[in-house]
């Protein structure tokens, strides 16, 4: 046959294929418009390889907590002061959002006093945190940042004075750390607290525009007090940063107090219900006793005693950074639920496939799905340790001092590495929902906006990763000098033994499923990178240290990232070992194995550069990752169902539990349509364009 003829026939077949009626069109033909979503989700749930209820009990730490959370969601849905009264959340103005958020806070504080069951009180806060990110952040600023500062830095006498008012919201607090010209560099903060011996008072002052406290949550409209971090000046000498309680507003009138100027930051990417603001102090006088004096102190005689270690000034940031794990669960839990349910309902392609069955689709979502389970398990491990350390702050100062460096290193590395990956997961979810994710009514855009600040707030991730790297380099130096290092860096005690094996023992692809094998590989990578970078920095010497650090900055950040993922996997395995008695241990282990492969794949370039793995090893790792994602896809819908997030909380019609997404989506959009009449601007601007007279000599034109 003539080759040209063959080509022509092939082209005709291709055209015919494009023009033929595809299954997806047949399914949605006008006389056959039966939704497949409900049946698809029902089948996904029926094929689950684990019991969803058992997984929910693991996530929420017991059946009693599951029941309490269910009741809490019911309370929100029925209480007009807690729920969205009318319309859609994403149609609220900033003023409406703030009023609603404060109304919700007032109501939950009222209910907190009435509810006797501590489980239900905690469940109500958790449910509201999922329901409203602005509510969550306002509560977080007061309860975590403001109150935690008093607990960590205040004496027992100061806690006795303030704590009852804080617990009962007779004082509304905020946390004034960052400034217009300074954020992560706390030593460069400009706000001053100057001691006046004659008056036995501190004078709080903002000397420059850049010293304005900036991005301070709840300072814009609400807070009556702040804990402000200031440079402490005594007799003309700067003694570094310390914390001070400064009144801002009259609790009865809400008016600003003399010398205090607070304003609102204005419109933000998201979290409009949180009144982020700015503060300027003009010679504001506070009693000496308003300096938080557990560690540093000022005596009545005017004698200043510094804290035993400057790192203590940053201690309150440690639990703040650990809360990244719980906060990420709130946002990712909803986003992944939406994306995975939509992926199981949406059908597209020559054979009308569920889009979740496409390899590019499930490989983009399954690691994130495993990640939120890891966040949940590791969150418990971290806070059990932190609660122990925080207790030392009240009972054993020496033990507190010994533990703080490692806690600081872990919190910095986790905040950076995990928050960065969480943003990747959010973007994967947005892409997985196509154009529908661009609609605010499907929540993902808003959730991405809510989370956007996380990579900067509480410490810029790049800076924190360098803090983690600096801790690793210092810990290695201690180990090289014969000192024993503990906690997350304890492996550095054996750095010589670790580095004595420059190549992997990997022979069988099944080795990759071993937790110990993966940890050994990541341990080698950390030790190798740390020793190489430490040698470079040591060779540079003190005079060229900063230049050498900057020249190797990206590699230092990579070191911190590998170290963070290594320790994250260790804590996850430690956490799921507690669940060996449950029916879902196998599934928890499967997700851990996927994320172990993910961590190796993420840092594959490092292993290949150093010759630890070769090309064959890399192929095995990549293939295993694809296989694990495909395997987990079969349980994707039940795994998001286990988070038991109700539809009214998710607020996204394309993520509805029953799968009947299109009528719900259209109904939501249609309900927001106020009128089908032309808008005022149409008559003002469009009509004159459309009805402008034509030149007399023009013969052609639209006659429609």
From TrEMBL:
Residue intervals of the Acyl-CoA oxidase/dehydrogenase middle domain: 174-284
UniProt keyword annotation of Plastid present: no
Acyl-CoA oxidase C-terminal domain sequence ranges: 516-691
Biological or metabolic pathway of the protein: Lipid metabolism; peroxisomal fatty acid beta-oxidation
GO cellular component, one term: peroxisome
Stretches assigned to coiled coil: none
One GO BP annotation of this record: lipid homeostasis
Residues covered by the Acyl-coenzyme A oxidase N-terminal domain: 52-172
Localization terms from the record: Peroxisome
Catalytic activities: a 2,3-saturated acyl-CoA + O2 = a (2E)-enoyl-CoA + H2O2
Record: residues binding FAD: 178, 217
Domain Acyl-CoA oxidase C-alpha1: 314-473
Name of a matching Pfam family: ACOX_C_alpha1
Keyword check for Nucleotide-binding: no
Cofactor requirement: FAD
Molecular function (Gene Ontology), one example: acyl-CoA oxidase activity
Keywords for the protein's UniProt record, in alphabetical order: FAD, Fatty acid metabolism, Flavoprotein, Lipid metabolism, Oxidoreductase, Peroxisome
UniProt similarity note: Belongs to the acyl-CoA oxidase family.
Protein name: Acyl-coenzyme A oxidase
